[in-house]
Structure formats: C-alpha cells, structure tokens
Amino acid sequence: MRFAGRIAVVGDEAGLPYERPPLSKEFLSGEKVAEQIQIRPPAFWLSHQIDLLLGSRVFKVDPAAHAVSADGRGTIKYASLVWAAGGAPRQLSCQGHDVSGIHYIRTLVDVERLRAEMVTARDVVIIGGGYIGLEAAAALSKLGKTVTIVEALDRVLARVACEEISDFYQHEHREHGVGLHLGASATCIEERNGRAIGVRLDSGAVLPADLIIVGIGIVPAVEPLLKAGTLGSNGVDVDSYCRTNLPDVLAVGDCAAHINSFAGDRRIRLESVQNANDQAKVAASTIVGNGVPYSSVPWFWSNQYDLRLQTVGFSGGYDQVVVRGSPASRSFSAIYLRDGIVIALDCVNATRDYVQGRALVVGRARPDLSALADCSVALRSLAGSTEAT
C-alpha cells in the first residue's frame, strides 16, 4: 500500500538530513565534504512533497491532541508520529568539563567545529575507547596529530567485543603511534584562560592536549515522549512493529528499545545505522497498514587505518570465542558462541567470513569448533550444522 498523505520532518539541525557514520571517519579526515554525506539531494525532498521543518526542536508531545510543539513552529498536528531523535552525546562530568577545546562527535556541526580547531592542534586526547574514539584516533593519527586514548575499562571495545579483538586493535593503534591509557579515568580538564590544555588522570598524570574529543556513549533523546507517558527506562519501549504504548506514536533507531531475537529475546537499544534503517521500514509499513515485524540481523562496520571490521549478529552474553585465521596476518574473524550456537562474528579484513557467517547466525548453527576455526573450511558449509560440540 502506498502512503497518500503528507510527510513532515522536524529536526533540530538546520542542514539537510545526512548520514552520521562518516562523521568519525571520512568526514572527520576530510576525505568527504558535507554534500557527499547527504541522504538525498535537495530536489528529492521537493519532488516527494516532504516538508523539512529544520532547525526546530520538538519539546512537547500531546498524544490526546495528536500534536507536537516545536521551537519556532508552534503546534504541528499528526496522524502518525515517528520519533527518530537518536540521542545526545554523554557529557563529561569532571572538573573543567565546560571549558573550550572539548568536542563531541554526533552532528555535522560538531565535526565542522572540530575540523576547524584541528588545523592548529598538535596534541589530541580522546576520552573513550569505543568505536567512535578509535575511529577518530585513526583519522587524526593519519593527519599527523599526536593522539592519546583514555579508556576507563581495562581494554578498548570492552563493552562490545572479545579480548582478541581488543588486543588486536590496541596493537594496531600503538603501531600507528597512538598512546593508550587503559583502566584510567579523567578527573580534571586542565585549562588556561578558559581553554583546555591537558587531561589529568586518576593516577595524577597530566596528558597535554590542544584538543579533547569525548566518546563515552549517548543518552537517548526521548524526554518529551517520556513526559507524554511512553514506557521505557533505556530509551522508549517499542513492540515488533515499532509502536510505543501511545496511540499512533512509533519510535525507531538509537532511542528505540525493542525485543531482539538475536539478543536472546532481550529488550535492547541498537546504536547502528542498520537498525535505524530497518526499523524505519518497519514503521513505514505499520503506518500504511501493511505491518511487517522487525526481524533484521544486526550488522555494523568500522573503518580504522586500512582495516575494515564487519560485524554480524549480537555478541552480548557470549560464553565462547573461536578465532578463525591469525590476527598477525591482519585478516581474521572472532566467532562468538553461546551454548555452542553461533550468535555473532567480528570479521577484520575478512569479508568472505562476514558474508558467509551471516547464515550461521540466522540459522543458529551449532558447528564443530575445529571446523569453525579451520580457514580451509568454508563457513557456508557449516550453516546447516546442528552437531553437538
């Protein structure tokens, strides 16, 4: 069924909608300009009669009146409301957190400001050793900056990957001259004349910094929905059709907490472009009365230096890891299992494993572990395996 009504997009950013993944990769490094990461050219929105109400923040949702209130726009009525606001960067809370020279990577404007200051910066400290922090470190290292990462946990990517993946990326970043302070926290941002000049760690050490980048997660941007009565403790809860508990109000993307079969039927938020795109399709089908439940396999990618990491599945709750190939060759895969069943793969410069491994995740394969680790055995040949291990 084709939607016959009008569509309005309300967003607090003034520019045309764009892809966020390049912000910490090609856009940060200068390999792409803003026009190259736009989702659609300006003419698309006009030709499809989509009203772009940009530079306006929705601050109230009135489910009884089927209306939202937005800065500078007054009241906007809706038949269906799709909340796709994502989240805001989690802020530093230590002393000096509000001085200039501290940057977050979430919006185009964020990175444009960062790029402007990068020109004269020499020493860069990145707080947070997740994908955003590592991608930014790779981009800045290639630009000749002296980069140091500070991570509160004892390894990078500790929340999302196994030790083998963490160890590999730690080695790679050190090989590219990036300093790593693991198990360390920032207790104070040292400043001079209101501008950051260093990061003091809990050990007492001070890292010089002309520029500080913070990548410590996001806070779901859902306050107006929660005030309107939506359920949720980590974002807003949605069902398999992306519907909240409020009539005609749906939510998608980073802020939508959904029950995911690939996460053991747990309610989770997935912060990935794959999830946002796939849930958007589900929401659209729901609105036009042709609802198809969300059942997409999670996938993700990260580019750092000449390394391409591709992830399929959800590794949370794994109890075993099989390494396929050699990290020393810079082409290998970490295969995650729970109770002998393949639940996810992290593939580094191993696209064939990524493509073929998807079937193992979808089919809940229970392959022989020695065959799983053997690079001469094609993963697709193990997809139908139910052999006990």
Keywords:
389 residues; alpha/beta; FAD/NAD(P)-binding domain; Enolase-like, domain 1; 3 domains; five-stranded parallel beta sheet; five-stranded antiparallel beta sheet; 9 helices; 25 strands; 22% helix; globular
Low-pLDDT residue spans: none
Name the CATH superfamily classification of the largest domain. FAD/NAD(P)-binding domain
Helix content: 10-25%
- Provide the CATH top-level class of the largest domain: Alpha Beta
Strand order of the largest sheet: 8-15-9-10-11
CATH topology of the largest domain: the name is FAD/NAD(P)-binding domain
Strand content: 25-35%
Total count of domains: 3
| Tertiary shape | globular
Rg from C-alpha positions? 22 Å
For the largest beta-sheet, the strand count, sense and barrel status come to: 5 strands, parallel
Q: How many strands in all?
A: 25
Count the helices. How many?
9
Terminal residue distance: 47 Å
Helix-strand category: alpha/beta
Mean pLDDT reading: 95
CATH architecture descriptor name of the largest domain: 3-Layer(bba) Sandwich
